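Q: Sequence in, structure out?
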Amino acid sequence: MDSLRTPDERFVGLVDYPFQAHFLPVGDELVMHYVDEGPADGPPVLLLHGQPTWSYLYRHVIPVLRAAGLRAIAPDLIGFGKSAKPIRRTDYSVRAHVRWLGALVLGLDLRDVTLVVQDWGGPIGLAVLAQDPERFARVVAANTVLHTTDPALAGALSWACHQGVDGSMVIEPALLDYQRMTQELPDFRPSLFVQGATEREVEDEVLAGYDAPFPDEAFCAGARQLPLLMGLTPASECARVNRHTAKALGEFTKPFLTAFSDGDPSTQGWAEVLQDAVPGARGQPHQVVPGAGHFLQEDDGNALAQIIARFAAGTSF
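A: Exactly. Output:
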């Protein structure tokens, strides 16, 4: 598989990102980068980003978890951050992302994991959990979705995506506009999406950190392709994978916590859907990060980190 790696000099001097780089082969002659901070024998917390970010998103979460004695592991999905970037769009699929991330979990032999998922980290990370649930001790779902196109989702989501009783699809136009924008932008810059989906003004040097992995279009195949893989129709690969994941989550009795911001219409309603669907979510009080948008780690990473640390320690809310 032909791939590129972003030159190391693109990551020199990034704001609040002093972490040592680690790499692991994950198949297809690709290597995945990950941050690994905290005691090696500490309880592992796997922090998963989505589109179009990378582990930089968790730079304010990682130190809090490390200080709490937790082992914070934040990988970059293939095609993002410091990880390998296949150059052909056809090399990317939902199942490929699940396979690559699963190879990291197995390669590091992670067990008793607290899984933290946001955005695309949900469909990908929860699918890995569905394949090997015994490795995972608990889940924090933060501003994520699991599109299945189930007709039962009608009326449950702010951004609708469900099949009608007549077989037609009801889809929020903003979802399609987002897809369109990611394809039409002549210069793909994650910073545009980060600033557009946060509540506070993000500093220019921080926005540059989000853009660092993509020096030119040759590095953008994965970031361009992932939005097109959303499960917006019943027959799409993503929706089929998500339905399998949803079935597995329906049997997941370990603690499952939803922690969403109050300013993200794109995921509004999913906390309640997950709370109702996952047995382990019952009795876990939903956590709200106020004043934050879709990228709640950027708006208030400390608040999210405190929630994760408390939950991973088994402390009641």
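The domain at 3-312 is CATH 3.40.50.1820 (Rossmann fold).
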